[in-house]
Amino acid sequence: MSKHHGKHRRGQSPGETGASASQRDVSHRKEAARGKADKKAEARRAGHRPPSAAHWAREAESRTTAAGETIDPRVAPAAAGIVTVQPGSRCDLEAIDANADGGLDKEEAKAALVTERARIATLQERLYAEHKRSLLVVFQAIDTGGKDGTIRAVFEGVNPQGCRVWSFKVPSAEESDHDFLWRYHAKAPARGMINVFNRSHYEDVLVVRVKDLVPAPVWRARYDQINYFERMLAAAGTTVLKFFLHISKDEQKERLEARIANPDKHWKFDPADLVERRSWDAYQAAFADALTACSTLHAPWHVVPANRKWYRNLLIARTIADTLEAMDPRFPEAQTGISGMTVPD
Ligand code: AMP
Ligand code: MG
Q1: How far is ligand 1, taken at its centre, from the CA of residue 170, in Å?
Q2: How far lies 294's CA from each of 93, 144, 211, 228, 254, in Å?
Q3: CA end-to-end span of the chain, whole Å?
Q4: What separation in Å is there between the alpha carbon of 107 and the centre of ligand 1?
Q5: How big is the CA angle at 140 (ends 135 and 142), to the nearest 5 degrees?
Q6: N or C: where does the chain have the smaller number of CB atoms within 10 Å of the terminal CB?
């Protein structure tokens, strides 16, 4: 008895043997179907499977869970000029102009940045005093993308006591001995704090994928793990803001050349960056997949045109200020009877 006895494939009558015209037709259809299935499997392997609309509907509904946990991350719309990846839709980085400047000139943008920084400083003081919620700002970009420069420009003037910046490098031996989220969770903001991640848990689906540091099923499973992690942070009162600094390949060349030409910038130049540059396309694909799979209602991804540093800084500062405003932090209730008190000599 054949192994396939009792089974028959669609379009083939049981027991049909020999090469008939209808069988050739069937095999063509099967081949086409197989091609489609292969494409789907290939897309899955590459991480190209955005969650369905139904998934996002469930996600929205579940903001208040049966246990009474409310996800209220107070996500504000990003500043005009930023492209927010809509949950469930594919992020197409090639369609986003890294050179955009919103029709502004540099001086205008710099003046506007000063205003946005003042808004951030005022609201940060309230967030710190309120001591209930927190803000996590994540920056990801290709090498030379401008993460350090953005942090310097946007957070200037913020009270250092209420703000922490964490830069993530190649994991240490101790970090590597834990689950991949361990080191990031340890640096998540405490109540009242703004924490900034210069690189983040996303490295574990970016550099790790491009350099093949773990098997594909391991990094692929991390998209969901990241979404749950960020959801848990949101449920605990942390608003998560994620910015991808989008530069063009030409711009990276110019920035690398500028680092080589200026001895004061040599400390920032890593010859390995030239090797990484060869993997430009692989990085862009990995970024697009991560932004697609991990742009959620509670923690959407924002793509920032970043060839022009002054435009990038303004858009990010404005979005952070708007987000803090939407969070609406309040000074705690003061004790009664303070006004009019006298201080003894
Ligand atoms: P930089 O930000 O230029 O100081 O470089 C930090 C380096 O650490 C970059 O080359 C990152 O790709 C690398 N890195 C950061 N996180 C990870 C990670 N989880 N696994 C492997 N490499 C990482
Ligand atoms: Mg570097």
Answers
A1: 5
A2: 15, 23, 21, 10, 30
A3: 105
A4: 34
A5: 165
A6: C
Kindly report the backbone phi and psi dihedral angles of residue 199, in degrees, each rounded to the nearest multiple of 5, phi listed first: 70, 165
Match domain 51-327 to its CATH number in 3.20.20.70, 3.10.50.40, 3.30.1360.40, 3.40.50.300: 3.40.50.300
Tell me the C-alpha to C-alpha distance, in Å, between residue 173 and each of 100, 212, 258: 41, 18, 34
Give this prediction's pTM: 0.83
C-alpha angle 95/97/103, rounded to 5°? 140
CA distances (Å), origin 138, targets 148, 150, 221, 259, 275: 12, 11, 21, 25, 25
DSSP state of 328: -
Q: Tell me the C-alpha to C-alpha distance, in Å, between residue 237 and each of 121, 223, 240.
A: 20, 21, 10
Angle at 217 between CA 213 and CA 220, to 5 degrees: 85
Rounded to whole angstroms, the Cα distance separating 43 from 174 reads 34
> Token digits for 151?
């942090």
Contact 151, 139 (CB under 8 A): yes
Q: Please write the tens of the pLDDT for every residue from 171-212.
A: 999 999 999 999 999 999 999 999 999 999 999 999 999 999
- Choose among 249, 302, 342: nearest CA to 76: 302
C-alpha 330 to ligand 2 mean position (Å): 39
- Residues 200 and 61: their CA atoms lie apart, in Å, by 28
Tokens 């003046």 map to which residue?
Answer: 111
Cα–Cα distance, 127 to 226 (Å, whole number): 26
Sheet containing 134-141, strands listed edge to edge, beginning at the edge strand earlier in sequence: 83-84, 301-305, 238-246, 134-141, 194-198, 163-167
pLDDT, tens only, 274-291: 999 999 999 999 999 999
Q: Whose CA is nearest to atom 6 of ligand 1?
A: 169
Q: Which of 275, 243, 281 is nearest to 256 (CA)?
A: 275
- Is 205 near ligand 1, meaning CB less than 6 Å away? no
Domain boundaries, the chain: 51-327
